[in-house]
Amino acid sequence: MAKGWRSGGIALFLGAWGENLAFDALSWVVPPLAPPHLLHAYMPEAIRQMVSPAVLAPVTSAVLAAIALLVLSLVPPGTPGRVRALATWLLGFWFLSEGLMAWVWLDAPAGVIAWSLAGGVPRSLAVAWLLARQQGPPAEQR
Domain locations in the chain? Predict the structure, then answer.
């Protein structure tokens, strides 16, 4: 019987958090890839004075990681096309949370918002792949 590697909840959370932070860090190197929560220049002045991107990135990444763990419970191990299903759920939550935040708080051109939201596609795929890999195969396959 093959032994599978399986991470606990804390390791899964830290993996998703780290991956989201990596995507946020990438946006500092390539600014057009910035997610809506890091479009600091387009936020209202009062918000810009209260919160810095250095605080927003880890906090928002932690929230996205928590959402990823919730999504992980929706698609059990062994589900055919699991990574695709996880990525689809994550992308839906990305558009909901980041899109709503952009609509309510940001005064950015539509093209900037669209490009920023599109960055959720590779992020969702990467986080879904990592979580599926970390969680391992279903119990009956271990």
Answer: 9-137
